[in-house]
Each structure stands twice: as structure tokens, then as C-alpha cells.
Amino acid sequence: MNRFPALSRAIRTLFPPEVADLFVPLTYLGDPTILLLVVAGVYWRTADRGWSAALLPVALGGLALSSGLKGHFALARPPVEYHRIAVGGLAFPSGHALGSTVVYAATALAVDFGTRTRRFAAAGLVVGAVALSRVVLGVHYLGDVVAGIAVGLAYVALVARLTRQDVRSAQHDARPAYWAALLLAAGAAVGGHGVVLLGAAAGGLVGWTAVPVADRQRLDLPSYSVVLAGLLAVLGLRLASHFAPPRPLLRAGLHAVAAFGIVALPTVEWSRLARAWRRLGQRGERPE
Fold this sequence. Notes:
Number of helices: 14
Mean pLDDT: 81
Oligomer: single chain
Order of helices and strands: HHHHHHHHHHHHHH
């Protein structure tokens, strides 16, 4: 398999160290934690409960696909002397390139501001920056990131087709995306990877099936303060999993809670809770 090591080396030499360091923050745009926060924020704030409802399972399925493929090919990264950041694990395909392609392309489908062409152009710029950063920082060969982008695009296109309820409409059913994510995560977990993603996919699926259809279509969107609190909660659970003891079931459970919360939060009647809170305040009472 040609991963273009010579071309990758040529790309690295184009950027002196002081310029290459500028790519460090760009590479974090493809970090799984950032991708999860992007998916949660877009899902909560978009008014479309069609394709946007599939954002979370599409992202989880993409990360599971990356993990499973890395375990299958088991290809090493470039030599450590080329690395400008500390990384570990396998290299092919690039998880950052694949994950960012899936999330930002899916986001371009979910949001409705601007034109479709401009949304995909913006997503392409972000994905391109993430992919280039992985090569410039010496942690991937060019072939790794190209493969990640190609697989990510194919996966988004496939899931978009599977979730579409009617080929003549833009309405989507998120259930096929959840089942795809669950199967991919289970496959990765069997190979020794993806147990955490299996927990997240299961938690999201439970949340989706537990919420009545009428509530999912109510679009009682949370306020910005609730979204901020939700993002902090998701980040906290992600960090708790990262620093928790190396127990796969514990980490899978934390991610299951996070995914369940992401799915369920927009369906809570925040306006009714706010009115109840004000009434209690007017009575001089404090909720237990």
C-alpha cells in the first residue's frame, strides 16, 4: 500500500518549525472531543429534526469505522522523530481526517444558513486544514489522510441514503444511523477497539427510542444557557472517561450517559420548567 512517504516528507519540508507549530490548534478541530461538542451544539440549536437527528449516530459511526479500520490494517505512524506533537496508536486511515470529514460534512447537511455550496466549501476548508495539519505535524502520511477523507465522504453519503424516508423528500429517520453506529462500534469492540463508542451508540439509541415521536417533533429547543450547561456536562463526562481508571465498562457507561443526554436534552420542556421555577420564586419557595 502506497501511503506516499516521499510526498509527505516534501510537504513537511515546506513548513519551517515556527510555521508548523501554527497547525497544532488546527489539528484539534478533528479531535473526537471537539467533534462530539460540535455535533451536540449543532443538534441542539438546529430547527430541523430530520437529518440533524442523525448527527450523533453518524459521528459515532464514523469514529467507530476509523477505529475498526485502524485495527484491521494495523499500519504504524511515521517515525517518531518526525512528530511535532505527542500521539500514539495506529495510523491508517487518519482518524482525525475521517472523523472531521464525517462531522463537518454532516453538519453542512444539517444547518440551513447560507447556500449548500458555501456550507460544503466551509466544511471542506476545515477538513482540509485538519488533514494537512496531520501531515505537517508528522503524525500521518499523506495516504492516511486521503484515505480518511474518502472513507468519511462515502460513509456520510451511504448513511444519508439509508436514513432518507423518501427519495423525493428531505426527511430522514435516524434509526438506521443508530443501528449502523451500533454495528460498527460492536465490530470495532470485537477487535479490541471501540468499547467506548459502543456504549455511546447504545446510550444514544436508548435515548432516541425512549423519547416519544411527538416530543422529538416538538422542537422545544433549549436556551443558550442550557446549551452551554449541556456542552460543559458532555465535556465533563468526556474528561471523566479520559481520566477514569482503565476500565472499559466504566468509560462506556460514561459515554452512554453523555449520548443519552445529548439526544434527550432538546425534548425537555424548558419553557414549562422556567414558568414553574418563576412561580416557586414568587411564592418564596425553593425547589427541592
